[in-house]
Amino acid sequence: MQFWQHSGAGISSRLAEQCLSLLPEGSPTSSPAPPPARGISFKSSNKHYGVKGARRSSPPTIAEDLNADHSVYLEERYGRNLPIAAAAAAKRALHRRIAGVLLRDDPTGAQSPLLGPSTRGVSDVSEGDVFLYPGGMNAIWNAHQLALATRPLGKSVCFGFPYTDTLKILQKWGPGCHFLGHGLDSDIDQLEKILEEESKLDPSKPPILALFTEFPSNPLLRSADLPRLRALADQYDFLIVIDETIGNFINVEVLPFADIVVSSLTKVFSGSSNVMGGSLVLNPKGRHYTILRSHLDSDYEDTYFDQDAIFMERNSRDFQRRIKVIDINTEAICDFLYSRSQAAGVPNAVIKDVAYPKYTTPAHYAARRIKANAQTDAEQGGYGGLFSVTFTSSSASHAFFDALPCYKGPSLGTNFTLACPFTILAHYNELDWAAQYGVDADLIRVSVGLEDTSELLVGFDLAMKAAEAAVTQNETL
User: Fold this and answer.
1) Which of 300, 316, 332 is a domain's end point?
2) Domain coverage including residue 333
3) CA-to-CA distance for 230 and 234, rounded, in angstroms?
4) Going by C-beta distance under 8 Å and a sequence separation of 6 or more, which residues neighbour residue 104?
5) Residue-wise pLDDT tens digits, 377-426
């Protein structure tokens, strides 16, 4: 159970449905095979995953002579997919988007794709340096397996408080790990001591296998000093693996400091909450690139289900536009909440602090934030769509969460705003342990969506008033 939970190696619901359809007819668990996809969308057996309003048993027929406006409308209305026979083309488009080599992206094939140097901060990145996996955790699992297979055996380092499965992978498989859970500059001081001590024990091999970190981290939104970590990796010859899911490569440039960059495509890259996926990108300028790439070229198995790739390709066509909208929305909300917090110097505020890259380790984030460039048409990166709020009391936290008019759930990067009591969900059996690293039991994590900014601010103002009323009520009792 722990293997399936942590490694992300399970199969998707689409693949499971396909497997069930292949069982012999009359089998107790067999089900009719889904109709083949021919160009618009796959019929969903679950109404919650289908496009709203589309409940027909087969895709609507579209005349071939529709004008461009009608085609665009129907594309957006019904979520047109590439045909299943084009799965290889869909995966190629995903590789190119993630590699940052696309100058013009037309997955329909009407125009030849225009490719150029990568925009990932390392111009030599190619689509061949990108590897797809069924989910983000599976990309992390495979990054760890890749390190174990190609480098001298040793403990890894988990730098900063990560999403829980990352730490479990490093602890439970292989020689174990050093956990530096605060992810601050003082932890790098401690890391230097660990590296010095381990080097003395066995000077013949690197003191650690690899360092894993998120940029920024989830849920504390802390950003590490990547140049300093990179310098240590070069000095002591270990790998750096960076999870960029929260920052995403539209906002931050982390590949130059990593040997491997992983990401959960399930999140904002997709946004639509109807498909999972993960990616692993190698840095071709990394000192260990040749052995890492050689191993993947011979050992990598493409287990990313074709139908999932079709949906991911469709969803990610406009990911850059969506990320920009989400960045703007999130900054407006965080500025509003932070201005009413103790961290901003407001006396008697019910909010203790807002964890958000604009306020949390801001110098390290700003150094990696993408700068506007008129020559390349690059826009300035934002601060991402995730933040966390801590409160002065449990009653304020509970009232805020209950009154917040948005969906409630444990994911992030969705096109709609989503909130969750993160610590209670992820660390219910280890609350005291999490608190040691600044992860409050009553922390509320929010992933901001594409809604109208003014409507979102009205909702968060409502939640703030509920939190303040709860505190006032407790004080009068």
Assistant:
1) 316
2) 318-476
3) 6
4) 111, 113, 114
5) 678 999 999 999 999 999 999 999 999 999 999 999 999 999 999 999 99
